[in-house]
Amino acid sequence: MSGAVGREPVFPTRQSLGLMKAKLKGAEVGHSLLKRKSEALTKRFREITRRIDEAKQKMGRVMQIAAFSLAEVSYAVGGDIGYQIQESAKQARFRVRAKQENVSGVFLPQFESYTEEGVNDFGLTGLGKGGQQIQRCRETYARAVETLVELASLQTAFLILDEVIKVVNRRVNAIEHVIIPRTENTIKYINSELDELDREEFYRLKKVSNKKQRDNAAADAEILAARQKAAEKEAQNGTADTSTVTNNEPEATDVLGEQEDNDVIF
Amino acid sequence: MASAATYKDRQFLAVIGDEDSVTGLLLAGIGHVTNPPDAQRNFLVVDSKTETSEIERTFQSFTQERKDIAVVLINQHIAERIRHSVDTFTDPFPAVLEIPSKDHPYDPEKDSVLKRVRRLFGE
Prior knowledge:
The complex is a heterodimer. Chain A is mainly alpha-helical. In chain A, 73% of the residues lie in helices and 8% in strands. Chain A has a domain at 14-172: Orthogonal Bundle (Helix Hairpins). Chain A contains four helices and two strands. In chain A, strand 1 and strand 2 (106-115) form a beta hairpin. Chain A starts with 13 loop residues before the first helix and ends in a 12-residue tail after the last helix. By secondary structure, chain B is α/β, with parallel strands linked by helices. Chain B is 41% helix and 17% strand. Chain B contains six helices and four strands. In chain B, strands 2-1-3-4 form a four-stranded parallel β-sheet, with helices on both faces. The longest helix of chain B is centred in the middle third of the chain and has 14 residues, at 52-65. Chain B is globular and about 50 Å long. The two termini of chain B are 29 Å apart. The model of chain B has no long low-confidence stretch (mean pLDDT 79). Chains A and B meet through helix 1, helix 2, strand 1, strand 2 and helix 3 of A and helix 1, helix 2, strand 3, strand 4 and helix 6 of B.
């Protein structure tokens, strides 16, 4: 699994290790925040769907009542008023305005109905007869439309929330399944590379000190051998002739100074 | 995401329905005709003689072209005739609302939004 997500293209240095650790921490914090946001939105979403269900049923009832009151009108007027009404409609009296509601960073619009004052297209409708029924019918339908507007804002909120929840969940999943494993992978990689470098360095130091030790030992052995040789020689000369010992000593002092003088030109 | 500009000036309701539904809703005062140069009504009366292509065209104009409509009300039995367009329209604005009509009782199973609700909760 962790092999599949790969790692960030970074150089394995201590600096990028620090960066990656900060990134991992940020990703974890972001993940928990987004998860909480998604939960809050889902809660809201469920509430809205429940209310939509209720409102749809209410709408069925309200529209039925409204249709009945319209039937009353056509009975009272004694004819079809549809055409007359369609022709006299000019300015909307019943309008909506959109408000915003903020749910954890998501703006949900809410329609609010209001009546534009001073607009009345149907002043003369039902002047002859049935005016009372028409008045009642208008009130009934106005209430019905209010229900419809409420339902419309619920529905809009539903659609927007649906979209937002999808986006948030996608982000949560991306962080959980891609970014965090990849960062962890990178940290692991950097750590292993740094360890490798450490081991190499340690091995190199060991090698160097080994070499030094060997060299020292060799030098010691040489000196020892030379001393031994000298001692043996001394012992031999000591038994054969003591005067050679006195001859030997100037030779040793020779090295320090006198022979050099031959090389010196000035 | 829906920015403020997309719904700030949406203030009308539009209706596509049979004569009774349209009459009733117009009585409530939602009817609006735009200013003369290109007078457009925000309602369409559909009867048995209305072509499906005309319903389709009106639906497209209410949902896509006009920017002043906040809610489109459409009778469910008419929505059935252009079911494909209604189902493919998923933008939040304008809100498309299927309403019952006098002689066609409301069937929640056919509602495009309720279908989505049901699908989401796996019922």
